[in-house]
Amino acid sequence: MKPPLEQLPKSEKILSADDDNPEGLDNVEQGNEDIDAETEDEKIKHDWMVAAAVLDRLCSFAFAYIFFGGTFIFVILFIFHP
Questions:
Q1: How many Cβ atoms sit within 10 Å of the Cβ of residue 17?
Q2: What is the CA radius of gyration of the chain?
Q3: Which of 26, 27, 31, 49 is deepest in the core (most CB within 10 A)?
């Protein structure tokens, strides 16, 4: 005996729908919308992760430029300052 649809996880609701169960078919349609929403959310999440990686790379270059530039200036001043 199958448990009622309300107690099943979303993935099993989609799989348990059959022709003589219109409630199950509604859940299939709802499940497809949820999957589309999840993939859209994942696309947005991926875009933000790429943007964060680009910003991280830019900040690391800026930090390296400032660090090595400051070190270079310090060495030059240390060597050539009377």
A1: 18
A2: 29
A3: 27
> In which residue are the tokens 């979303």 written?
10
| First vs last C-alpha separation in the chain | 92
Please enumerate in sequence order all residues whose Cβ is within 8 A of that of 32, keeping only pairs 6 or more positions apart, or say none: 14
Cα separation, 18 vs 15, in Å, equals 8
Residue 20 CA to chain centroid, in angstroms? Answer: 39
Please give the structure tokens belonging to residue 28: 């299939």
pLDDT in tens, 48-80: 999 999 999 999 999 999 999 999 999 999 999
Q: State phi, psi for 20 to the nearest 5 degrees.
A: -90, 20
Task: Please give the Cα distance from 63 to 31 (Å, whole number).
Answer: 47
